[in-house]
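Pasting as-is:
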Amino acid sequence: MSTSTAVVNPVLRVAPAAPAEAAAYFRASLVFHADVSDVAAALAAEGDPGFVVLDSRSTEAWDQGHIPGAVHLPTALVAEQAEQLLDRNVPVVTYCWGPGCNGATRSALALAELGYQVKEMLGGFEYWAREGFGFETWEGTERRDADPLTAPVGAENCGC
């Protein structure tokens, strides 16, 4: 009789979900999130993208750089100012600094509780700039070279 037990690696220690459960989870994720490249493509296309982008950061952060055309509404002010700045019939895409910040999540929650349709932009302003999309500052428009760790160099999109 062997006393050794099979060692399961950390990835499979908890088994993957059944395919139908996984499909439901990932479908739901796409209901709640958009990525930087998709938001940029929709904003660059001709015509109305069908949503408004909301920057939920402080005024100092906004001045440092923001997505062109975004509405500035800091998270703490959503409840009192959303109705003056946003049309309840137009979906809102929120963003904050980046993956380490939950300001966009908190803003999305506040907007949803007020009756707005809302998605959160994954990656936030950090990945907008890192992927080489143009942004506005208090000094004017800027664009940085795409970071090859976040976007393909010389390609129009990542092909995701």
